[in-house]
Amino acid sequence: MDQNLDTFLELQYKHDLDLGSEFANQKRELAKRNYEDKNIQQLLAYYKGVPAGSVEVIIAEDAAEIDGLVVDENFQKKGIGSRLQKFVMEKFLDKTIILVADGEDTPREMYRKQNYEYLGFKYHAHKVYED
Known about the structure:
By secondary structure, the chain is of the alpha+beta class.
């Protein structure tokens, strides 16, 4: 397996464990499949040579959706999430950038400063199993 993919999977898995190991394992398998999809790009961010953040970008004809944006808790408040988003915005100038964010644990102020426009909300549920 590609070293960058391993690093990407590790960052995402660590974050996804908050929702249970079954969820984290399923997300890992999805990320492996996404790695082969030409319409999905997986990006890594490094801070002083250490993997610090990751994101998937789902590319459509007119839009690029930022999905699964993760910054390791040891590297938060250093602008890593903002830089990942800025990279996507600069790379896909011809597309509408979409960011779907969790309403409860999302750094809303960061998104406001980046001029995201709030369009609405929806509820989504995860069935979590105890290990």
